[in-house]
Every structure is written in C-alpha cells, then in structure tokens.
Amino acid sequence: QVQLVESGGGLVQAGGSLRLSCAASGSIFSINAMGWYRQAPGKQRELVAAITSGDITNYTDSVKGRFTISRDNAKNTVYLQMNSLKPEDTAVYYCNSKGIASTWRFYDSWGQGTQVTVSS
Fold first, then answer.
1. Structure letter (DSSP) for residue 63
2. Which of 12, 20, 37, 86 is the most exposed place for a label (fewest CB within 10 A)?
C-alpha cells in the first residue's frame, strides 16, 4: 500500500505564491510518475502538472509559465511551486502517484487533498 501526504495549501492573495509538497511512502518498488490534480467546486478534477521518473513534465495550459513541478527521487517527494496565483486557481489540490509496489503490482494512489484559496 502506498500513502501520499500533502502539505502546503492555504489562503493567499492574488499574485502571491504557494508551494505544495507530497511525500509518498509505503511498499514502493518504483515510481513512474507523480502529479498534481485540482478540483474546484462544481467542476471535474483536472490535471495541473505531472512529472515522470525521467523528469519529463506536463502542464495544463492555464498554469504554464506560473507553476513548476519538481521531484526529489531520494525522498519520493513531488513539489508544486505556484507563482502569480489567480482566483481561478482556487481548488482542492490532490497529489497522485503511479508506479510499481514492492508486491510487483501497479499502483495508482491519491493524497487526501489540500485546499488552495486565492483571494482577489
């Protein structure tokens, strides 16, 4: 079983910055990719950014140039640096990790979510 623990959410004014962290732990053999999704009230969950084990990154268009995803493989941790935040970035942000567990089975795990609120 793989657990994800997120931190770093909060309330910030428009134009401000926040940094989210997500640490994976448990029976992990290898991590293929980690990413951040978000879900605003009344909307579907959407991919914000993802990073593979080879450091290939992918961003949704609305955050390109403002958000940066990075990872520390030694700590099984992924970060999301969010700059120039906008009120429309307000959402619950979820961490996701996909890989192979020590049982040799594929896993796809989610964190509990962290609230990001951007005031205008």
1. G
2. 86
